[in-house]
Each structure stands twice: as structure tokens, then as C-alpha cells.
Design goal:
Blueprint lengths: L6 H22 L3 H25 L16 H12 L14 H12 L5 H32 L1 H4 L1 H25 L5 H4 L1 H19 L19 H16 L11 H8 L3 H12 L3 H17 L8 H7 L5 H12 L3 H11 L5
Helix pairs in contact: 1-2, 1-9, 2-3, 2-9, 3-5, 5-7, 7-9, 10-12, 13-14, 13-15
Keywords: DNA-binding, Membrane, Transcription, Transcription regulation, Transmembrane, Transmembrane helix
Pfam family, one: HTH_18
Protein name: Helix-turn-helix domain-containing protein
Length: 347
């Protein structure tokens, strides 16, 4: 059968080409967030290109090394997770996140020398691992953006939901393959989701600055806030936190603080990001964790962990545990056990 294009593959080829172009455009907006996001879009686009080559039969005419594009699924999760957490100035995706992709490269190089039966087993095993890998990162990214919704912004939540949708479509595709129910129309489904992901980013980027906007950027080009004014605003914010103990409000939001202090929410976000080096959520949680440590060390009371969470200003135990471990290095329960060993009277 001669290689050929049809309407669907032409559409996907155009989407892949536009995705590659979009990745380059995103990279021109120099920032850590855009580095991760551009890499995600590029990986999606190259995978889409691989699918087009496979469906049309042109893959048989292409260099064998292009087959490595199929393993780029192992890059999507770490890169997307890096993007959703890119507002944290000190955060970097560790090298170990990319170990599965390196293992895939080794597997890809070894595969041709294995028997046909072993090759089939390896291909299925890799597919299962890719699916699990995608779901783990999609779940972690979605949970992160949801828990840190104020800092992450609605855009990252929407994108995380889309990424989970891609993971589900990936699973559905291979379920259909393994059950023998796959049709060519279903075969295109996973690429439709990938294309939707690319076009959504392109559309939102064309609409405005949401894609390229970074909540914790070093400067706010249009704010016009002077250094002295920024320092004065920050002093007022800290006074509110330290004297009025605003962090004890379990429902404290950026807009609520802005209304209380008669300072715009954008200016509060700016001074916290630029002068404190963190997002608003981490800024508030830092005070709450200090309060929690004080309560854990309180010899006059024997609070339970969940009581301390609410007394310190958190509105659920999961967020409390996550924030405490982030700033202290260990979960509150472990911190309490260490205190009890040092001061048996606290038990």
C-alpha cells in the first residue's frame, strides 16, 4: 500500500506544524514557566507528527530514529508538572523525573535485537508504564493547581484538567487496542485531544497574556509601583499578618486582604512576589506554619493535629500537612514525635 494522506491526517499535520511554531513563540517569552510550557507543546506536536507518519505509511520511509518520538509521552508529565509549579522561584524539575525517558531510549536501542515475541511483550509493557506515568503526573499536577488555586490561577487549572483528559484518552485508546474494538475513527481520537491542547494554548495566547503571564515574575511592567511604595505596602501587609493575625482567618483570600487594607490585590501580589520571593499562598502559609509550630510546642495544651490545623488558619488537614512539610521538611506528626522525644512532658 502506497503512503498517502487523507483529510484527518492533513488536519493533524497542520496542527503539529502550528504546535511547533507555537512552542518557538512561547520560548521567545523568556521565563522558566514558558520554557516548560514550550517544551510541553513541542513534545505534543512531535508526537502528533509521529502519529501522522504512522497512519499515512510514510513512517516506513523515514529514518528509524524517528520512532523515539513515541516515547516522548515520558517527557509530557515531568514537563507539565514543571510548568504548573513554575511560579515557585526556586523550584526545578529534578533530573530523576526524566529517568523513565532515558530507560525508554535504551529500550528503543536494544529492541531490534530481541526476538519478535519478546518485542511484543516489551511494547505492551512500555505502553502500560506510559499510561501509569501519565496518570500519576496528571493527578499530581491537577491536585497541585487545585490546592494552590489562588497562586496557580484559573488558566493552570483549566490546562491541568485538559492534561488529565489527554491521559484518559490515552488509556481509552489502548483499552480499545487490546480488546480488539479499535477503529480508525477511534485511532484519531487521542490526536484530537492533543490537537485541542495545542489549539487551546494558541487561542488563549492570542487572546491575551494568560499563557505568558507569570504570577511570580520579577517585575510587573504596567503597575507603575515605585520601590518606596512597594516597601510601604509590604510593611502594611506584614503588620496585618503579625499584629492583626490575618492568617488565622481560614478563608483568607487575596481580595479579602486587599479590601481590608484598601490596597489593590494586584499590588499586594506584586510586593509579596517581588520583595518576599514567593506567591501569596506560600506567604500566608508561612505564617500559619509558624503558628502551628508554636501550638505543637505548647506545653499547656495537648492539641490534636487536626485541631492545630484549624487553629493555625488552615481549612483542611491535607493542605496543612503539605504546607508544613514544605516549610519544615517533615510532616507535623513527625515533628510532634520529635518534640515528644526531646520533651516527654509534652506527651
Amino acid at each position: 500500500m502506497e503512503p498517502s494522506l487523507n483529510t484527518w491526517t492533513v488536519i493533524f499535520l497542520i496542527a503539529a506544524s502550528q504546535g511547533i511554531f507555537l512552542a518557538v513563540v512561547i520560548w521567545t517569552k523568556r521565563h522558566q514557566a514558558n520554557g516548560y510550557l514550550g517544551a510541553v507543546v513541542l513534545a505534543f506536536s512531535l508526537m502528533l507528527l509521529y502519529y501522522v507518519l504512522y497512519w499515512t505509511g510514510y513512517f516506513r520511509l523515514a529514518p528509524r530514529w524517528l520512532g523515539v518520538l513515541q516515547g516522548m509521552t515520558f517527557l509530557l508529565g515531568p514537563l507539565f508538572y514543571g510548568y504548573v509549579r513554575s511560579d515557585e522561584r526556586l523550584f526545578r524539575v529534578g533530573v530523576w523525573h526524566f529517568v523513565p525517558f532515558v530507560i525508554y531510549l535504551i529500550h528503543f536501542l536494544v529492541l531490534p535485537f530481541e526476538s519478535l515475541e519478546l518485542r511484543r511483550v516489551l511494547v505492551r509493557s512500555v505502553t502500560v508504564l506510559q499510561t501509569i506515568h501519565l496518570f500519576v503526573y496528571a493527578a499530581v499536577a491537577l491536585r497541585w493547581t487545585w490546592v494552590n488555586a489562588l497562586a496557580s490561577g484559573r488558566w493552570r487549572i483549566v490546562l491541568s484538567v485538559l492534561f488529565m483528559g489527554y491521559a484518559l484518552s490515552f488509556l481509552l485508546y489502548y483499552v480499545l487496542v487490546w480488546t480488539g474494538l479499535l477503529k480508525i475513527e477511534y485511532d484519531y481520537f487521542i490526536s484530537v485531544v492533543a490537537g485541542a491542547f495545542i489549539y487551546t494554548i494558541g487561542y488563549k495566547g492570542y487572546q491575551g497574556r494568560e499563557v505568558f503571564h507569570v504570577n511570580t515574575g520579577v517585575k510587573y511592567d504596567r503597575s507603575g509601583l515605585s520601590q518606596s511604595a512597594a516597601e510601604a505596602f509590604l510593611a502594611e501587609v506584614k503588620r496585618y499578618m503579625e499584629e492583626d493575625k490575618g492568617y488565622l482567618n481560614n478563608d483568607l483570600k487575596l481580595q479579602y486582604m486587599a479590601d481590608e487594607l484598601a490596597i489593590s490585590a494586584n499590588h499586594i501580589s506584586q510586593v509579596v512576589n517581588e520583595l518576599e520571593g514567593c506567591n501569596f499562598t506560600d506567604f500566608v502559609n508561612r505564617y500559619r506554619v509558624q503558628e502551628a509550630k508554636r501550638l505543637l510546642q505548647d506545653e499547656a495544651h495537648h492539641y490534636k493535629i487536626i485541631q492545630i490545623a484549624y487553629l493555625a488558619g488552615f481549612n483542611n488537614k491535607a493542605t496543612f500537612n503539605s504546607a508544613f512539610k514544605k516549610f519544615v521538611g517533615v510532616p507535623p506528626s513527625q515533628f510532634k514525635k520529635a518534640l515528644n522525644r526531646q520533651h516527654p512532658q509534652l506527651q
